[in-house]
Amino acid sequence: MNVEFENFEQLLQTAKSLPAVPIAVIDADEQHVLEGACKAAEAGYIEPVLIGDEEVIRNLLAAITCAKKFRIIHAPGEDAMAEKGVELVENSEVEALMKGHIHTDEFLHPILAHHMQGKKRISHVFLTDLKTYPKLLYITDAAININPDLNAKQAIAQNAIDMARILGVDLPKVAALSAVEVINPAIPSTIDAACLAKMSQRGQITGGIVDGPLAFDNAISAESAGIKGIKSPVSGDVDILVVPDLVSGNILGKDLEYLAGGRLAGFVMGTKVPIVLTSRADPVEARVISCAVAALMISRMSSKNG
Predict the structure, then answer these.
(1) Domains of the chain: which residue ranges?
(2) In three state form, how does the secondary structure of 27-39 look?
(3) Does 1-118+271-306 match 121-269 in CATH topology?
(4) CA distance 2 to 9
């Protein structure tokens, strides 16, 4: 298990030693969003620029008694908020974006329109800390690509591998999930999963080991795989779960959060700058952890590029 971080506590400790990252918070007109931004700033992870209705933001900041003073940009509508965030990135005033209370589609629209995705397809990754699993687990894609085809899944897997490597996983192990571990033409996701495994072997997906199709139990549990006679290089030690579609990924991530006590951080990959994307209902802690991860990623990407 060659990983740098087994849990969020280890990751947060490393992030505390890094410079705070200037980040635009899109639609900061909500208490949980501001509490998350405030706590992440107080911990030294970020320097937030708050975008939204200025009067609402100031009233909420006073109510939560945030000790930090922030730059606030008045933008009364979701379109204007998102456009302003992109503008700040393009002017090098911030190094990352964070979704606040805005809907995901409104948040992402200007990012795609302004070609901030670069040459890659964008995808979402849940980074998950579970007491029942010995290391951080990546789940993708649960928020952006609704019903991805094989080419999209290739990009989704590659984005997650790239993220895991930035965060200290030497050789990420990827399970391409389906309902069963055998190829069944009646279940198209089994075919896609098998193709992803072969693409990894042939160098079309790089930096990790991909195997599939695997059912969730066979991916997570080496014992389960052994009982079923499955010989897989990733079973029981998987880092990344590539789900068949957005619905299954969204359900899986929220099941782990609400029923298994998992802690989740959320990100958009494939963009020119890191983007924090959590659910509007996520707790303050999820926003703080996501900010810390963004700061760590920016630091390491800057060092690599420098």
Answers:
(1) 1-118+271-306, 121-269
(2) CCCCHHHHHHHHH
(3) no
(4) 18
Tokens encoding 42: 């107080």
What amino acid occupies position 123?
S
State pLDDT tens for residues 36-93. Answer: 999 999 999 999 999 999 999 999 998 988 878 899 999 988 888 989 999 999 999 9
pLDDT tens string 37-46: 999 999 999 9
Q: Find tokens 């952006």 and name the residue.
A: 144
For domain 1-118+271-306, give the fold. Answer: Rossmann fold (3.40.50)
Backbone φ and ψ for 255, nearest 5 degrees, come out as: -60, -50
**Burial label, 108 (beta-carbon count in 10 A; 0-12, 13-18, 19+):** buried
Sign of the Cα torsion 182, 130, 101, 49 reads negative
Amino acid at 99: K
Decide: 196 and 154 in contact? Cβ < 8 Å: yes
The CATH architecture of the domain made up of 121-269 is: 3-Layer(aba) Sandwich (3.40)
Q: Which spans in the chain are helix H?
A: 8-15, 31-42, 54-64, 78-90, 104-113, 150-166, 188-201, 216-220, 222-227, 246-258, 284-305
